[in-house]
Amino acid sequence: MIFLLIFPVLVTGFLACHIHPVHSYRLHRYEGQYLYLKSAELGLKCFFLAFLAWLGLHYWLPDRLPIGWFAIPLTLSGALTEVMATMIGAASSTQPASLSEEATRMASFFELSFLTFAAAYLVKLWSHVSLRLRFGQWNTRVHVIGEILEDSPLDNLLFRLSLQRDRSAMLTMEDRKVYVGKIINLGEPSATTGMDQDIAIMPLMSGYRDKDTLKVTFTTFYEEVDLGILISLRQDNILSATEFDFGAYRLWNPLLDTEASPAETDGKARRGLLGKLLAAFVR
């Protein structure tokens, strides 16, 4: 019977990974044998708590709690054993003594299985309390995700920029397309993918890099339509990312503030619009 507990232990461990406030964001990184071992680790922790609760219910607490003229039963072990004995007796011709022992073992199995599943939510509650004591607030999602993404410079940069309303990012894609805008969302993690697979950006302007000089030329300015356009980008296609500083860009491109030369007549209107956009952000 004890070998049957392996299944609820593993299933409970997998459930704990899904509902845990930290492991739920790391679940996509647990692959192959590591996922099994992590599930087994959390499952054994839940089983240990369940076993302590089971001992308490059977040996430390009274069977009944008298309150005035009433007595509240504190254990279902006896009733569950009788149900198991009835089910086994109806299906087999076991001797009464063996029947009672088998019914007791089955009742204990179901009790431990139920308490093991319940312990997963106790572990979740304890984790929330620990994070509350650590960060000083109940909503610790941002802190947890920030610590998880610290191992990747790109993930960390995009995440930090997404938290700042007045900071924009410049992203260069594999096709030499360049986007400048505000990082809106990095997505939500799932069982197989992390939150760093796709990103949503509200673009301010976009363009391309010259294939020879790699100089950036902006061709589209989304302020013209003012519709709050969102663009979803695959993070695997990002070649480079940096914070875009409008003041520095204006300093390095002085032609934005001067009258265009005859050779630049075709781009005069475009630079005028870009100059207004930069001036608005500089202020």
Textual characterization of the structure:
By secondary structure, the chain is α+β, with helices and mostly antiparallel strands. A hairpin with a 6-residue loop joins strand 5 (198-209) and strand 6 (216-221). Mean pLDDT is 77; it is low at 258-273 and 278-283. Helix 1 crosses helix 3. It is 50% helix and 18% strand. Strands 3, 4, 5, 6, 7 and 8 form a 6-stranded antiparallel β-sheet that branches. A two-stranded antiparallel sheet has the order 1-2. The protein has helices at residues 6-19, 23-26, 33-60, 77-91, 96-135, 141-148, 153-163, 246-252, 268-282; strands at 64-67, 70-73, 168-173, 177-185, 198-209, 216-221, 231-234, 238-244. The termini are far apart. The protein is built from 9 helices and 8 strands.
Features:
single chain; 283 residues; alpha+beta; 6-stranded antiparallel beta sheet; two-stranded antiparallel sheet; 9 helices; 8 strands; 50% helix; 18% strand; elongated; disordered C terminus
Question: What's the layout of helices and strands?
Answer:
Blueprint: H1 6-19, H2 23-26, H3 33-60, E1 64-67, E2 70-73, H4 77-91, H5 96-135, H6 141-148, H7 153-163, E3 168-173, E4 177-185, E5 198-209, E6 216-221, E7 231-234, E8 238-244, H8 246-252, H9 268-282
Helix pairs in contact: 1-3, 1-5, 3-5, 4-5
What amount of the residues lies in strands?
A: 15-25%
Rg, please? 31 Å
Uncertain stretches: 258-273, 278-283
Count helical runs: 9
Intertermini distance: 73 Å
Q: What is the H/E string?
A: HHHEEHHHHEEEEEEHH
Structural class: alpha+beta
Shape: elongated
The beta-strand count equals: 8
